[in-house]
Amino acid sequence: MKVLVIGSGGREHALCWAIAKSPKCDELYCAPGNAGIDQVAICVDIAADDYQGLVNYAIDNEVDFVIVGPEGPLVDGLVDMLEKVGIKAFGPSASAARLEGSKGFMKDLCARHNIPTADYGRFDEPDAAKEYILRHHAPIVVKADGLAAGKGVIICRNENEAYAAIDHMMAERAFGSAGDEVIIEHFMAGEEASFFVLVDGETAVPLRSAQDHKPAFDGGEGPNTGGMGAYTPAPVIDEAMTKVIMETIIKPTVKAMASEGNPYKGVLYAGLMITEEGPLLMEYNARFGDPECQALMVTLKSDILDALIACADGTLKNVKLQWHDSAALTVVMATTGYPGRYESGSEIKGLEAADAIDGVVVFHAGTRMDNGKVVADGGRVLGITATAKNVAEAKKLAYTAVDLIDWPEGFYRSDIGWRAVNRSNIKTGHSSHGRHNTHRT
Ligand code: GLY
């Protein structure tokens, strides 16, 4: 079959890398793709937000199945547009993607269906939002309702920070119309984890758990990013915790969405806080996490294409996913300056040597070819991903590969996986410093 993947990040490179192995995939296209994706798929020069261009391309080229990677096209209804012209697509409809596209929609759904999450208020007027903060006090979390490229959540240590966050979103319109409404959420303390399920409208099949590292610098310092590294599995989500998450959060959500007329199909990514009282839902995303997807894809044994098609066809109950008995860890290399201003166009060397290490895959996130050279073309640029028998070994291997990348304009965190490695050290009596989570890993 002919498959088209939409997107240009590390997540889409990992998806293409996994889909290319499927015997069902005869031709693989990616729009717009990047220099790494170009090695496993045919890149098509159509932007991920040129929705009509993408639909026309799929029709003209008789594409059988489209996989939509990023949240923007999902929230804007690309899957609906494709289905309307009879093209099968992986991902939720626009109305179901509101689970990510509107934090207020997600919180209200949780409230109606007793899905465990923090208390909150929704406000379209700054004075009312500030009055709520005065009544409930800091620490408190201010969230823009709409999509804000991962920057729309501000954890406020005191009331003044919370007032400033409200002004930033509502008066200064830092995120445009995404901040016309804000959600004020009570602070949750615990350990953050990402949990992924495939859903076909009715059945939910768990993938694996993962942990991301959002702050830019070691030790959780610096501004929040899209994610500077990830690993799977997350030891905090064991088998018993998986059952609790499925029964109290995932299944009630899937049932609620169907019963309210918005059946959810696609991958559902739950951002969780694992507290002493149990798991709480922090947010939903309507797509694979990035860079979590990179670590998930290298540990998946089953044919990913079969599973994604089953989501679209409503046949997930027949799917049993198999995983390699290994862990994986991804270190993101980003352009200096990210998540603020940065320069594109610097040359990256050493990619082949890093990729040649047994157990390592170099996923490209923001790269392009320039006169036969690979150059940086974005904030997050590479996702160096290693598999090994446990997270500690995967970490060693990933950093061995990172050392081979010759790119003076790049930077990376050197502590990806610290939490899992600390846990295993504690088990074996080699405990080092402990850390308390504050929504920052
Ligand atoms: N890794 C965070 C995200 O994909 O939103």
Give the names of the bound compounds.
glycine
Based on Cα principal axes, name the global outline: globular
Helix content: 25-40%
Taken as a percent bin, the fraction of beta residues is 25-35%
Uncertain runs are 431-438
DSSP helix count?
14
Structure summary, number of beta strands: 22
What structural class do the secondary elements suggest? alpha+beta
Rounded mean pLDDT score: 95
Give the termini separation: 40 Å
Q: What radius of gyration results from the CA coordinates?
A: 21 Å
The biggest sheet amounts to: 9 strands, antiparallel
Describe the structure.
There is one protein chain. The protein has 441 residues and is an alpha+beta fold. 31% of the residues lie in helices and 27% in strands. The chain contains 14 helices and 22 strands. The chain has helices at residues 10-19, 51-60, 71-75, 78-84, 98-101, 103-112, 126-136, 159-171, 239-259, 292-299, 304-313, 351-355, 391-402, 418-427; strands at 2-7, 27-32, 42-43, 65-68, 88-90, 120-123, 140-144, 153-156, 182-186, 191-200, 204-212, 215-217, 221-224, 229-232, 265-275, 278-285, 327-335, 360-364, 367-370, 373-376, 380-388, 410-411. It is globular. It starts with a strand and ends in a 14-residue tail after the last helix. Bound molecules: glycine. Glycine binds at residues 150, 212, 226-227, 285, 289-290, 292. Glycine (GLY) binds at residues 150, 212, 226-227, 285, 289-290, 292.
Keywords:
441 residues; alpha+beta; nine-stranded antiparallel β-sheet; five-stranded parallel β-sheet; 14 helices; 31% helix; globular; binds glycine
